Amino acid sequence: MNWKKIIAIIAGIALVAAFVFKLKSNKDIATEKIYHYDKEQPINVSIQNIKLEDISQESSYVGNFGANRETKLSAETQGKINHISVNEGDFVRKGQKLIQLDNALLLRKLNVLEVQSQNAEVEYNVQLNANQIQIDGLRKDVNRYSILQKSDAIQGVQLEKAEMQLKTAENQRTAIIQQSGIKSLDAQRESIEEQINKTTIKAPFSGIVTMKFTEIGGFAAPGMPLLQITDLDKIKFTINVSENELSQFEIGKSYEVVADIYPNQSLTGRTTLIGSKANMGGSYPVQFTLKNMEGAKIKAGMFGKLAVSNKSIEKGFSIPASAIIGSAAEPQVYLIKDGKAKLQTISISKKIQNKAIVSTGIKEGDILIINGLINLFDGANVSFN
Question: Same structural domain for residues 267 and 240?
Fold first, then answer.
């Protein structure tokens, strides 16, 4: 027998045995470190004793203020900016001139047209006066020939000839009026005047210049914003409410609004919009319009609160909304029965802020679990203080 082979085989077996032993040792160590949850161990929770209480409809909603109107001004025509009369923060009135574009070329065209119009009007008046003199003379001839022809003093052909000449002169007058270039020049002048008016940008409403996008020497073009005007004389206040709370609001009805920065001064907001489509969070926007404080102290983006007061009080069970699990279609809560967590289906009549009013599923004296829901399951042992 080859002793070297025997030694090699024994060494291999020993190495495999050592490897297997190491794996088993590591498994035992890992098993010891793994946490084994004991389902029988009580879970510590916080509770609320259910009792009938007065449910008041008085509540408040957090929202934010926005501008009543806001627009970015741009030019209706293109051109170089020659003058800007305002800066950010300036108050402007409706119709006030804010920006002037270069209109020198248009003004020169207008001056040329005015000269041409004056010359055309002079020529038109000369032709019209000469034609009128001719018509007046021919009318006299027709009248005289008519009298003479009745007394057979002249032949009828002379009267006919005078009448034809009068008709021709009257037709010439019509042609002079129709062919006059005054109307064409007037139309051109009106077109240029309209273009000149477009080079002056005015405030569409009274407000504050909240942004300035250009400077003197810049270039303006249709659609390119130049200034932003914000109307803060009136402001809007928007809140978001659940579908159960929409019925508290009516279009045209007034509510009390308080800005967070001025907690001692309340304003009256009139409902101007009730959302007809829920946002991503499942709530509906409700908007109110109100008069701003003197000096437009409330700015767009500030936060505030709106109070909803309803004197009707009813009895009910109020629980924290955070204690509810399950879906909106089938809400559930955990009650404590004989020291164990019991899953209970409930019905919710309404939600008021972070509270839910339960109509069925719980009764006075029940013990509701409000905290410690993470590891909780139906039938779990619970403990509480």
Answer: yes
